[in-house]
Amino acid sequence: MASRSFWLQQALSTKYDMLPSLQGDLKTDICIVGGGFTGLWTAINIKQFDPSIGVVILEKDICGGGASGRNGGFCMTWMSKAISLLKITGGQEGVRLLRESENAVKDIGQFCLDHKIDCQFRLDGWIWTASNDPQIDAWQETIDKLDKLGLNPYELLDDNQLSAMTGSTLHKGGVFEKGVATVQPGMLARGLRRVASDLGVRIFENTGMLELVRQTSPGVVTKNGRVRAESIVLALNAWAHELPEFRRTVLPISATVIATKPVPEKLDSLGMTGCTAVSDSRFLVNFYRPTIDGRLVWGIGGGTIPFAGRLGTRFDNLIQQKATVASALRRFCPTLKDTEVEYSWSGPATRTSNGLPMFGSLPGAERIIFGHGYVGNGVGPSYLGGKILAAIALDQKNEWSESPLVNGPIGRRLPPEPFRFIGGKLVRAASIRVDQAHDKNTKPARLDSFLASLGPSSLTPRNSVPNSKR
Ligand SMILES: Cc1cc2nc3c(=O)[nH]c(=O)nc-3n(C[C@H](O)[C@H](O)[C@H](O)COP(=O)(O)OP(=O)(O)OC[C@H]3O[C@@H](n4cnc5c(N)ncnc54)[C@H](O)[C@@H]3O)c2cc1C
Q: Which homologous superfamily does the CATH classification assign to the domain defined by 6-393?
């Protein structure tokens, strides 16, 4: 069984019922593989459109056991990714998707209210910061672009606002986007599972896909059964990398998260009175947010990568990363240096070359549909992913199925093994050295800057860090 995040332990402590695994063969209209946010939103969309359509979800662990129940709980828009999004989708469609990504955050909040999902949804905003001098203005190119379109949601923070709102004096600059929320992601995933079940989706947990049948009548083979379906939706996110079709387009990369004991008075005294999300602009991004019970949850992205497509449970327990994350928390918030870290966990996030998710059908197997690659920003956008995948699975011709994100440009492919693994390690090590040089306000080695520039996109645009040549 995968290691459980604090979020899932909290969500499961109230009610834990693992749904039975698939035993025997069945036929259905649409079979979704993967019970994270993408799979669950897709299933809910299909059932809401037409309750008579048969929908099955196969989940190898429990719903939310993947990245969906392990993330930082930032429920973001696509505004910080505007440059890539507009480049790929074009002006008009890009603007529509940016607006939809803002609506998605609000819609998730409303959906949770309507369906009594108590996932601690708080619309307290996000601060995009610079935690060293070369990161200052990392957001400027994005803001200039959004300004021209009349869409800029970012407010520049002065030094006092910045330290008061982030709880740290280490940030050198920052902008605030008020339309971002935080959630308790484990409770959101388990709540969506309940709603999907109530809508008639048949969910099998502890049921991994062992083989994908890529024929005109597609199917999925599991340990004790087989599902035949008109359409199959692969909602595997990082685990898509295990399929040969996606090995060179989506890179799983671990992130590690810790949660302190509840220290509400200490957070209040630092100015962290709400649940505002904060992240900086480095390659190994720091991201943190308070919880409603006064814990500080802190994560660092850009960790380990898998070798030769083998992901498995490799990213579940990277406890050696816990010390690195705890030391970042203490460096940014020295008054929390004696605060006990109660939980730590890791999970697989994804990187794609353009920093955006990809959707489409497998070449030569049109009825096998996929959606993955949210690059550290999937809690909000997977709501849109669910609309896109449902529209394709239902054969609808609309703005979702015909979005340029569907079968869009793949961008630079990852190299084959062993170059991907060795190259990935070199790029990561160089990126760490570039971040460290920037922290000391020294110039990174030219080779390091070059290697770091080869890495795939991160949470925020990499090329926008001035002087860094990343
Ligand atoms: C530590 C961490 C922190 C993050 N922080 C944030 C954040 O704060 N904000 C944000 O927006 N995004 C964040 N992300 C990314 C975000 O969590 C993901 O983009 C999002 O959860 C993707 O949802 P998904 O349903 O596509 O993938 P997942 O939730 O990973 O779902 C895929 C599912 O497929 C299942 N599966 C895999 N293989 C098989 C198989 N063979 N058969 C059946 N099932 C299978 C897995 O068990 C899993 O449940 C973070 C990710 C990590 C790892």
A: FAD/NAD(P)-binding domain (3.50.50.60)
